[in-house]
């Protein structure tokens, strides 16, 4: 009986030790791992617009797509997440309120079971990195973060490819997204009529809970809204800007089927998003300090008061 209680104490001490707590929490556990390769290669500098125009440094606002007919057509980079957003949002991760958690807050997630169903596209953001393949393709998840993107792969829907402007010549950290709305897989994933402009505006519609009037947008249209996921709340301000993309169908992938009598394949507007985190979950430090600071000592005192007499007897 005298030996059983000190062991109960050992067990409790191991169980409530900070390390055991840390390893239970994926966010703290990942912070204990060696740091991953830094994303930025030169000091980040953010112009007032929140991004550098790819056009001013040999880049393009159209992606590079293999095997188009005629050759050389691209898809519009029609959404930018401004580098004036909170730094945490620009980090490509799901933890700590990062980019992937932001996307989940409006029901966009990585591809179905990690499989890449679409073809790769490339882009040159004029940042000195030259032409790079897409970082990843992200799909509407039909409100099911686990399997919803499989539905999108089969039934079609909203999706986007993205790149980060972080090369040595224009290291803003802004995220450039090429969004569109595609037909079901059986139709070869072609883009629906007006599907670049609508793909952009349904994303903005979901972020702002507003029906965006695609055909009436101008370069003075603005919207805002809030979304949440994983305990993080994001406040997004959206501004449509002209001058980056042209208002045209020429050179746009699938232009003949995407353009309509009332709109070119791309209307020439880019939605620029400035994202701020307005609420976060109680973080690890907030959790550990009250727990160890206030709860552990009384608990230990109580344990020592009741158990120590047995150890020394
Ligand atoms: C980019 O994607 C193409 C396929 O579209 C692939 O052949 C090529 O190897 C990729 N390049 C890199 C650097 O991953
Ligand atoms: C939200 O996204 C879905 C899927 O793309 C779309 O059907 C719907 O119209 C969007 N909602 C708004 C308000 O834009
Ligand atoms: C677009 O503008 C026209 C003319 O100003 C107006 O009649 C129409 O209701 C607007 N459409 C939307 C969706 O706002
Ligand atoms: C907005 O678009 C108009 C043409 O529709 C153009 O004259 C004006 O310069 C643009 N303004 C900005 C701030 O880009
Ligand atoms: C489409 O773009 C061309 C320029 O390439 C322009 O002349 C035409 O008016 C535009 N059409 C629409 C419907 O916006
Ligand atoms: C579609 O783009 C090609 C160039 O890629 C151009 O030659 C053609 O005129 C465009 N079609 C229309 C209807 O704008
Ligand atoms: C695109 O150009 C057409 C024709 O000039 C114009 O009617 C339309 O408003 C333009 N679209 C935008 C978004 O500026």
From TrEMBL:
Originating species: Lentinula guzmanii
Regions that span the bilayer: 287-312
UniProt key word Transmembrane helix: yes
Protein's name according to its UniProt entry: Uncharacterized protein
Signal peptide segment: 1-22
Keywords (A to Z) from UniProt: Membrane, Signal, Transmembrane, Transmembrane helix
Signal listed as a keyword: yes
């Amino acid at each position: 009986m005298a030996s059983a209680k000190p062991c109960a104490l050992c067990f409790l001490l191991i169980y409530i030790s900070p390390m055991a707590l840390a390893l239970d929490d994926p966010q703290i556990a990942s912070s204990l791992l060696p740091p991953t390769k830094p994303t930025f290669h030169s000091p980040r500098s953010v112009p007032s617009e929140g991004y550098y125009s790819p056009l001013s440094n040999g880049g393009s606002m159209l992606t590079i797509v293999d095997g188009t007919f005629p050759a050389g057509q691209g898809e519009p980079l029609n959404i930018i997440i401004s580098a004036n957003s909170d730094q945490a949002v620009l980090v490509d991760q799901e933890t700590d309120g990062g980019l992937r958690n932001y996307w989940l807050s409006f029901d966009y997630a990585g591809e179905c079971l990690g499989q890449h169903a679409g073809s790769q596209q490339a882009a040159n953001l004029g940042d000195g990195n030259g032409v790079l393949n897409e970082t990843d393709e992200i799909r509407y998840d039909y409100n099911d973060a686990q399997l919803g993107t499989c539905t999108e792969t089969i039934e079609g829907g909203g999706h986007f490819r993205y790149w980060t402007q972080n090369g040595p010549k224009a290291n803003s950290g802004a995220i450039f997204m090429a969004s569109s709305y595609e037909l079901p897989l059986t139709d070869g994933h072609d883009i629906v009529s007006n599907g670049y402009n609508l793909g952009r505006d349904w994303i903005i519609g979901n972020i702002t809970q507003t029906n965006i009037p695609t055909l009436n947008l101008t370069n003075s249209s603005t919207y805002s809204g809030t979304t949440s996921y994983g305990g993080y709340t994001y406040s997004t301000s959206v501004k449509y800007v002209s001058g980056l993309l042209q208002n045209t169908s020429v050179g746009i992938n699938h232009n003949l089927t995407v353009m309509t009598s009332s709109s070119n394949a791309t209307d020439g507007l880019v939605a620029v998003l400035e994202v701020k985190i307005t609420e976060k979950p109680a973080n690890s430090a907030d959790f550990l300090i009250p727990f160890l600071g206030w709860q552990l000592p009384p608990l230990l005192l109580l344990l020592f008061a009741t158990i120590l007499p047995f150890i020394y007897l």
